Amino acid sequence: DGATVQPLVDATLDTLGAMIFHGGHLDTALLGEMREVLMPLLFDMGRLALERRQPADLERVRALRATIADESLDTETRFTAVRELPVVLADMTHNRVWQMLARRVRAFLTSPPMVAARQRLRRDPGRFVPLLDACLDCLAAGREAKAVACLQDLIRLVGDPLHAVSDAAPTPQKRGART
Q1: DSSP state of 128
Q2: Residues 6+ apart with CB under 8 A from 9
Q3: 63 Cβ partners below 8 Å, 6+ apart?
Q4: Is 139:58 a contact under the CB 8 Å cutoff?
Q5: DSSP state of 11
Q6: Which residues lie below 8 Å from residue 22, measured CB to CB, with a gap of 6+?
């Protein structure tokens, strides 16, 4: 039919969401590869954000925290606030490249395949609130290094595909076990 198939590594990042969640299945290996690339970047961006923060920046973080914690809101609205957190952190760095990267990550996470994957995992965004609170508390107490560690723990928890899958997948019953 004359179609030319390009190597997968030549695909654009816009195809990544559909590659990670396709046909109702989550490709945890590819999700792990994505995490391997993004985690160090997000850790560094978060560290810079905390170093360069202004008081008004923390108010934006607190507003997102309130939305994430609000159980009266639907889950996707609460996850919208989770996805906005890297954008706020990038803005706190005052670095245009971090700002562009964070907005691309947000766009990726809002792609239809990633929304479907998130819904399938049925994670509760409220589980991120204690780490966000710990980070804010450490900043208020002047414990900068601990605040960075808490933020990195938060980023790790939000982006950990194995933890996400273990939350969603029921443990298989042993053969012959009663349910």
Answers
A1: G
A2: none
A3: none
A4: yes
A5: S
A6: 113
Q: What is the pTM of this model?
A: 0.78
Find residue 22's DSSP bridge partners: 25
Q: Which amino acid is at 111?
A: S
pLDDT at 148: 97
DSSP per residue, 74-94: -HHHHHHHHHHHHHHHHHHHT
| Distance from C-alpha of 117 to C-alpha of 24, rounded to nearest angstrom | 8
Q: Residue 40: exposed, middle, or buried by beta-carbon count in 10 A (0-12, 13-18, 19+)? A: exposed
Give the distance, in angstroms, between the CA of residue 101 and the centroid of all CA atoms in the same chain.
13
Tell me the pLDDT tens digit for each residue of 132-156. Answer: 999 999 999 999 999 999 999 999 8
Token digits of residue 174? 């042993």
Six-digit token string for 156: 């790790």
Beta-strand runs (E) in the chain: 21-22, 25-26
Render pLDDT for 21-70 as a digit per residue (tens, 0 to 9): 777 777 778 778 888 888 899 999 999 999 999 989 999 999 999 999 99
Among 45, 62, 67, 53, CA closest to 155:
45
Backbone torsions φ then ψ of 19, nearest 5 degrees: -75, -35
- Cβ atoms of 64 and 84 within 8 Å: the answer is yes
| Region of residue 94 (left: phi > 0; alpha: psi -120 to 50; beta: else) | left
Answer yes or no: are the C-beta atoms of 42 and 155 closer than 8 Å. Answer: yes
